[in-house]
Structures are given as structure tokens and as C-alpha cells.
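Batch job 17 of 40 flagged for manual review because the log was empty.
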Amino acid sequence: MPLTLDRLNAASPAEFTELLAGTYEHSPWIVERAASMRPFASLAQLKLAMVRVVREASDAERLALLRAHPELAGRAMVAKSLTAESTDEQSRAGLTQCTPGEFEALQRLNAAWNAKFGVPFMLAVRGPRGTGLSRPQILAEFERRLANPVDHELAECLRQVHRVVELRLDDKFGHVPAFGDRVLDDADALAAHSDPGFAERGQLTVTYLTDAHRACARQLDAWMREAGFDEVTHDAVGNVVGVYHGVRPDAKRLLTGSHYDTVRNGGRHDGRLGILVPIACVSELSRAGRRLPFGLEVVAFAEEEGQRYKATFLGSGALVGRFDPAWLDQADATGTTMREAMRAAGLRIEDIPSIRRDPSRYLGFVEVHIEQGPVLAELDLPLGVVTSINGSRRWVGEVIGMAAHAGTTPMGRRRDAAAAVAELVLALERRASAVPEVVGTVGLLEVPAGSINVVPGRCRFSLDIRATTDAARDACASDVLAELARICERRTVTYTLEETMRAPAAPSDPAWQARWERAVASLGLPVHRMPSGAGHDAMMLHTVMPQAMLFVRGLNSGISHNPLEAITNDDAELVVRAFLALLDDLAAGG
């Protein structure tokens, strides 16, 4: 019979420890300390309580926890001395049926890992979906992580331990994250569509109005209809729009959604999570025969990334009247203009102005998104409430000095363009670090026709400055550009600089942010507030209506725009339930 929270909360400390035996490998102290944190209102709260115990433990205790775990296909497995839980997990991953070559590779990797890190390699071999990773996947992950820094991997190993425990607790409680499984399954199915040149290499790339893009639109259309949406349409820019009516069809609507295009060789959750989660919510509402006092409009935005054409936020921009007709004449790498691509897709360009939304018909806009960063992972928190989407400015520039022989030109006589830019990079780092929630990056750095024995005469660079407020962003920019001028004057070099983008910050609407906070708290989770350093479709909707976002933790240190982008089914379950809680709160007048 599955364990229940009622039984656990009522148990004596000794019985509590016994009921949760086998969760943390050979480490009952974690469960013992968590007992004092009762009562637990949710399984998620119990999981986080034990994570908190580990976070508050000493370094020696955390190392002992890691060392309590067995190697993958190691001596303990061969000797059949694994715990029942580890035996089950390694068996599910097929590690008890390794080929001689796989077994030899694992022994080599185990030896190399222990020599570098001093603890066993930790991997939740049941994976993000809980059904088990394949042996090739395990070996590839082992090889990849072996190259990581020691401090990074010790923290990652603890995160893997917590995921192992999460799955063990799911088993004990008979918890099946059905919503989360659906979201992950749909994300995998949508990722089957990829552009030519990438699909053949197993890479996910879906750019605006390609065959793969249009296949994704058809699939989203089908899922919306299956979920019970009352209306499903494709608009003049390729957005897929699903409407689930309220009690009255003419009631105001809550707008939500995100984008389904991807960067090149990207991940399967960026953008798409914000479409699949509300589809799952509508499916649940429809299944229950429930109508809300308001309508729910879900928009799968056709373009946000600007990969095929330089038209970032095309899909959401069109909804707020910011479609630029000049975009139509842009040509992609094959010479196909956007106008030609839209006509070939059967889109009616002349109808674009008509898809602009009337803000008075909407309550606001909310968006769910994978964090795309390491903060939630490092805090061991599944959800984060966004306070503001950073405002950003970007420049491309070049410093012009004088090329000279590296051997014959004295150090004091040089006009080194690369050295000037290097000084600028450090100045930007110092200035951005001095103010909380300001970030600055030089992502492009190039010495044209550079040579190992030539003092650089030219150096091209980029600047990217972001902050939660436009004032903080602009103050940083002013200081950095002034420092660039001083550097160049002192080094007797010149520079050119072109601003290529300026996007205003989009602070969350206080009332809508509070709704997300209440939704997260209703799950028994702590409310963590955080800014978004990346841009999102919500930035466009922010110009005409109140908006707020919810982040979900990413695996692999939160990496995104990358094939390693991933979330767990348990975290996906929580974000669907948070969205449903927000709908309930809004329906109750919150």
C-alpha cells in the first residue's frame, strides 16, 4: 500500500525514519533531521525538506553522502552487494547486462572519475522521465561530465542524488506525475520535426515557415483540438491560436503562450513548454467539464528567435501591432524572402494588421518558461517567480590601432587594438558586477586576419548590457562607453561603435506576479523571486497589457539553447499544477 503524508506526519520519529528508509543511500541522518520539519502539506514539500537538510549539513557530511553511493556497474554490483533501491535502478538502466566493451568503458571512467573527484560518479540513471536512460546515454553523460571542474561536479552530484531520492519517494507514495509525463512526451514528439541539415544529425532546429515548422503547427493544432479547445485557428503570421471559452463565450480572456520555433541545434523545452503546459491545463478543464468565468486563449507564437530572418518576436509582435512590413523583403540564406515564404505557406499578408489584439478584451498575459540559467538548479528549487524581464542594449564595434611586428615593436610603442578591447572587457566585468542584477557580456571578439607574430591592428567586438530596469542598464552603458573612449585615447587607438538593439525592461505586473506566488505557495513550495536575463514573448505583450512569468528549473545546470536542455517530469508536473492553481485563484476573484 502506498505511503501517505497523513501517516508520515503522524508517525513517531523512529517510525518516520523507518517509513523513509532507503531513500538516501546509507544516510539515515537526513531523514532523521527532516522529521522535525513536519507536518508536510505536499510531497514536494517533503522532498525539499530533505534537500534543505543536505544543504545545511557540513561539507564532511555531504562528501560522506556522496561516498555512500555505489559506482555504476562497479564492484558492489558485481558482488551483488547493492541496496535494493540501487539494484533496481541499475537494472532498469541495463547496467547488469553491459557488453564487455561497455563494462570495460565504465570501469575506466569510474577510475578516472574517482581519481579526479574523490567520490563516485552520481547519475540518476532513471532519467528525466523516470523510465531509465540507455547505456549509450549513460556512457555519453559520464564522458561529458568527466571534463567539468571539481566544484561544479560535486554540486551536480548532489543534485543527482536528490533526483534519485525524488524518484524513490514517488515510488513509495505511488505518485505518478501524469501531467508532467504528458508535457515531456509532447515535447519529445514535437522535437521529431527538424529542418534539413539538422534532422539528419539528430539535432533540433525549427526555423520560421520551413516544412518542420509547419509540421509543428499542424501537430499543435491537433493537440489543441484533442484537448477540447472550442476554437483553433492559424493566423496571418503562422501563430496557432486555441481558445477555450469561459462560462460566457464573450467573457474577457486570459492570454498565454510562447514560441515553437527554435535556435539552431537547440533544446526541446525553450518556448514550447509555455504552449504544452496550458494545453495540458485545458485538457484537464475539458475532461472535468469545467468552464471558468473567463476564457483562456493559448497562442503558439510562430517566431521569436530571429533565426531564419532578422525579425525577432515576429509572432508576439504582430499581436501588439509591431509587425514591421520591411521584414517582408528580407531574404534568408537561400535567397527566399519572407514574403515568398509566407505566400508559399498560404498565409495572407494583407490580414496581418487584423490580428492585433484589443487589450480591453484581455485580463492579462502569463507565460511559463524554462529558466535558461543555473539559479534554480543551484538553489534546488523547481519553480521561480519572475519579477522583471531585463532590458537590454547591444552594440557591435571595432577598435583600430596599428599592426606591427611582434618582435621588433617595443611594448611602449604599440597601438594594440586587441589589448584595448581586452581592457574594455575587464572594465565591463567590473562595472556590471558592482550593481545587483546588471549583467554585461562581450560575446564576440575577433582579430581580423590575425597572426601569431603580429601586434593586432584591428579588433572587432560586441557589447551586451542588461538589467532589471532601463535606468540601471543605461547607467552601466554610459559608464562603459565612457571608459571605452578613455581607453582608446590613452592607447592612441580609435574605435567605431553601432548600437544594434535596444529593448526596454518589462517588470512583472504586481497583481499577476502575486497570483504566481500564491500558486507556487499552494504546492507547498517556497516562493523564490528572480529576474529574467533572457528576452521572452511576454516583453511584447507587456507593451499593451499586464504580464507575469513563471520559471521552471532546467537540468544540466540550467543550460538552454542546447541539446542538453531538459526538465524532469516531476518539475513539469509542478508547473502544470501551478498553472491550474493560478486559474483557480483567478476564477475565485484573486
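Reviewer: the log was empty due to a logging misconfiguration, but the result itself is present. The first helix runs from residue 5 to 10. Unflagging and moving on to job 18.
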